[in-house]
Amino acid sequence: MRGFVNAIGFLTIIKIPARYCYHKDFSPALAYFPLAGLAVGIMGAFFFWGFSFFLPIAVASVLAVGIEVVLTRGLHYDGLADVFDGFFSGAKGKDGVLEIMKKSDIGSFGVMAVVFMLLLKIALIYFLYTFLGANIWLFLAVLSFMPLWGRWSMVYLLKSHPPAKKEGSLAAMFSSVKNSRYLMVSSVYALVLFLGSVYAAESILGGPVVVCAGPFAGLVPILGPVLKAVIIFLAPFLVLMFLGGYFSKRLGGINGDILGACSIMVEVFYLFVSFLVFSYL
């Protein structure tokens, strides 16, 4: 429970009393990062659902993303802007890129990246609703899990890649020999929750009826939603592997800005893959 409370305090605007905070080893909170992301996602989905009763869906999509940004202080979008400024500024070498990423101001590449990702996220939420609106529970489940996979990507990166700076950085603060265990634990519960939610929403709470003859007819209603959920997880995971390898190779490791940037990009790609899967499968 203390790890979850610290994850909430670190990833959201909610203030945690000092007596509950970790002061030396922050890594135990990693196992709860995806759960904290799910809490943010449920709040965003709840507000979307409420707004949809009296506002156009396009406006509800904008406000749902706005709620997420407010709840997280826009922390990860700041990292996204810093990464794009650093990598596209023309700086030479690791030190030049890191120097630009440390600056408090945002350059033109950073602004364009943030605006592009926000617009793309809003558009994908809107079009997902146009396809899944008939099954509002499935849409709300997909929307709720978007921040979960963004935060899970941080756990994966912190386990798979060393910090670019060994001391005094956000990545170093969460670096621990126990990160493999935290990744395993968070992966298991994240997948179980995601698979269970998609299956329940699509097959139990009003999803389409699948008609199939043959010896495997009874398995189709189960395997269909599960297969979709697996595809939706695997595609962003492959993108995350590429992003983590690329950034780590360029900088000799990862830092807080890369964690935030990858989180946003994984969320957007998750929505994109979800749109394709539920549109064509």
Structure description:
It is a single chain. The chain has 281 residues and is mostly helical. The chain is 73% helix and 0% strand. It is built from 11 helices and no strands. It has helices at 2-11, 33-51, 57-71, 75-88, 93-102, 108-132, 136-160, 170-173, 179-204, 220-251, 256-280. α7 packs antiparallel against α11. It is globular. Residues 207-220 have low confidence and may be disordered.
Number of helical elements: 11
Structural class: mainly alpha
In this structure, how is the largest beta sheet organized? none
Strand content: under 5%
Q: Which shape, going by the Cα principal axes?
A: globular
The number of distinct β-strands equals 0
Catalogue the unreliable spans: 207-220
Approximate helicity band: over 70%
Q: Could you tell me the mean pLDDT? A: 84
In sequence order, what are the helices and strands, one letter per element?
A: HHHHHHHHHHH
Distance between the termini: 39 Å
Radius of gyration: 19 Å
